[in-house]
């Protein structure tokens, strides 16, 4: 947020160290938005994060399996579901659902995956329904992952935290929405 980036572990020595094996400490599920690259936002280096990116953090079996990979195979202790301000995928899904106008091609699959967040945001109301939907998507996805049959035991034992977070494009701040370990 301050701009004092360290750019750690991005050199050829780090690449060589990781050439045979990786043990990232975290997994980030974030949006495809070009303004929200997790490795840069969190100033991490090679081998630090598993990163999955989908439109509006939409999930399905392949994405869920990708998120599960680190905690279930290499002891990754943190999953962050990272939404963000002014998300184009969320806005497009919101307008598609609100106006009953399906999006073309496979974009409609994203709309359908985001429908529960739309419904939750509609129930809760608020001044900006698109931002409410973005936050609802983060919190519901993080909750779904926390209660996932394969991840829940790790969460229950305190070996894994599944955190929902929201990135402000304006300030660079990442706000934790829930799931942070106590």
Put the structure in a nutshell.
Helix content is 42%, strand content 16%. It is built from seven helices and five strands.
- End-to-end CA span: 24 Å
Query: How would you state the average pLDDT, rounded?
Result: 91
Q: What spatial order of strands do you see in the largest sheet?
A: 2-1-3-4-5
Count of DSSP helices? 7
Percent helix, as a range, is 40-55%
Tell me, what's the shape?
globular
Task: Give the CATH topology.
Answer: Beta-carbonic Anhydrase, Chain A
What's the name of the CATH homologous superfamily? Carbonic anhydrase
Q: Spell out the helices and strands N to C.
A: HEHEHEHHHHEE
Can you identify the CATH class? Alpha Beta
Low-confidence stretches: none
> What class do helices, strands and sheet pairing give?
alpha/beta
Count of extended strands: 5
Major sheet attributes: 5 strands, mixed
Share of β-strand residues:
15-25%
Count of discrete domains:
1
Cα-based radius of gyration, to the nearest Å: 17 Å
- For the record, the CATH architecture stands as 3-Layer(aba) Sandwich
Description:
It is a single chain. By secondary structure, the chain is α/β, with parallel strands linked by helices. It has a single domain (12-178), classed as Beta-carbonic Anhydrase, Chain A, CATH 3.40.1050. Helix content is 42%, strand content 16%. The chain has seven helices and five strands, in the order αβαβαβααααββ. The protein has helices at residues 12-18, 38-41, 61-73, 88-99, 107-124, 129-146, 152-156; strands at 26-30, 49-53, 78-84, 161-167, 174-178. Strands 2-1-3-4-5 form a five-stranded mixed β-sheet, with helices on one face. A hairpin with a 6-residue loop joins strand 4 (161-167) and strand 5. Helix 4 (88-99) packs across helix 5 and helix 5 packs across helix 6 (129-146). The longest helix has 18 residues, at 107-124. The radius of gyration is 17 Å and the shape is globular. The two termini are 24 Å apart. The model has no long low-confidence stretch (mean pLDDT 91).
């Amino acid at each position: 947020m301050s701009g004092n980036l360290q750019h750690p572990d991005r050199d050829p020595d780090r690449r060589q160290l990781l050439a045979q094996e990786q043990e990232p400490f975290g997994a980030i599920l974030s949006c495809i938005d070009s303004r929200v690259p997790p490795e840069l936002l969190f100033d991490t280096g090679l081998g630090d994060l598993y990163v999955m990116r989908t439109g509006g953090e939409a999930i399905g079996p392949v994405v869920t399996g990708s998120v599960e990979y680190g905690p279930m195979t290499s002891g990754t202790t943190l999953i962050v579901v990272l939404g963000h301000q002014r998300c184009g995928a969320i806005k497009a899904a919101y307008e598609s659902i609100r106006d009953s106008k399906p999006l073309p091609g496979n974009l409609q699959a994203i709309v359908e995956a985001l429908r529960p967040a739309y419904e939750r945001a509609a129930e809760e109301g608020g001044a900006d329904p698109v931002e409410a939907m973005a936050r609802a998507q983060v919190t519901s996805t993080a909750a779904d992952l926390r209660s996932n049959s394969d991840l829940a035991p790790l969460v229950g034992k305190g070996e894994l935290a599944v955190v929902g977070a929201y990135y402000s494009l304006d300030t660079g701040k990442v706000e934790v929405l829930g799931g942070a370990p106590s």
